[in-house]
Design brief:
299 residues, mainly beta, 2 helices, 43% strand, binds 6-O-phosphono-beta-D-glucopyranose
């Protein structure tokens, strides 16, 4: 399979396929400015390393990597709903894209870098909880930045409503010592306090479990990491919701696929469509949710 993928889609020195962690089939994008690995399982970015720098993304050491269950780390794609579906309680949290296999689409090179498009479609949907024909494409490109764009197309003849997230797990030196910027002044729903609505007066800090849905925000966020000496800029488009998540010690210990101490080394800042920011996609229509990451030394 790897050989065939390399023959049909490889770009020598720029893009190749290999088996990655857990023997998952992955595409590796290589650019002088950075290197990225994406699993076909879930269309999920697993690693992004700027040249001369360190890994930007957190991947749990105890993650399932069996090509069936979701991968704990990198950038999971939550789709076509975010969180639980109250109308279908047996449906999987965060949808089914992250546990589905994506097909390899177009490999491309442009002035900004090198990229790959992965596709997942439901031309003959069999799911009762999602009986809609669709095409989902994720375009991942790397150069000086990592860009991930998730495009939903409605290939049926009725509108549907989607929720989604690019659920990015950032690797950090010490979550409690992180300076987060971009969320102060906004309103949020606090999932730790039964979705209580609150105002974020100052920038949030990570202490214990944090699970907040920031509403009506298109702002970029910054993670200033004094321990790793770097700043990560997180821009997004097609989203007015940002989720900030760290499971804290108790939740981390309760999850089989999360290292007990891993909560110290990660934080999720997610570009989301959820709640009032779910999107209606008309027949023949599209919606694109995207995020763009860049890293610079902390001056
Ligand atoms: C976050 C949610 O986006 O994802 C949290 O806000 C959730 O409530 C977290 O716990 C992880 O979800 P999962 O399904 O990957 O364990």
């Amino acid at each position: 399979m790897i050989e065939t993928l390399n023959r049909d889609h490889g770009l020598p020195g720029r893009l190749h396929f290999e088996t990655g962690p857990g023997d998952l089939v992955c595409v590796v994008l290589e650019h002088p400015a950075s290197r990225c690995r994406v699993a076909l399982h879930g269309g999920q970015v697993l690693s992004w390393v700027p040249a001369g720098g360190e890994e930007v993304l957190f991947l749990s050491q105890t993650s399932h990597l069996d090509g069936v269950r979701s991968i704990r780390g990198g950038v999971p794609i939550c789709w076509p709903w975010f969180g639980n579906r109250p109308d279908a309680p047996d449906s999987p949290q965060h949808g089914f894209a992250r546990t589905s296999s994506f097909r390899v689409g177009e490999a491309f090179e442009n002035a900004a870098g090198v990229g790959i498009e992965l596709e997942f479609d439901g031309a003959n949907p069999t799911r009762e909880d999602w009986p809609h024909p669709f095409s989902l494409r994720v375009r991942v490109s790397v150069g000086a930045e990592l860009e991930i764009a998730l495009e939903t197309r409605n290939t049926g003849d009725r509108p549907f409503t989607i929720g989604a997230a690019l659920h990015t797990y950032f690797r950090v030196g010490d979550a409690e010592r992180l300076a987060l910027r971009g969320l102060a002044g906004g309103e949020y729903l606090d999932k730790v306090r039964d979705f209580a609505r609150d105002t974020q007066h100052e920038e949030p800090v990570i202490r214990g479990e944090v699970d907040r849905v920031y509403l009506d925000t298109e702002a970029s966020c910054q993670l200033e990491d004094a321990v790793l000496g770097r700043r990560i800029d997180i821009a997004k488009a097609g989203s007015r919701t940002t989720v900030l998540w760290n499971p804290g010690p108790e939740q981390a210990a309760a999850m089989a696929d999360f290292d007990d101490e891993g909560y110290r080394e990660m934080v999720c800042v997610e570009a989301v469509n959820a709640f009032d920011d779910q999107r209606i996609v008309a027949p023949g229509g599209r919606h694109t949710l995207s995020t763009r990451l860049s890293v610079s030394p902390l001056g």
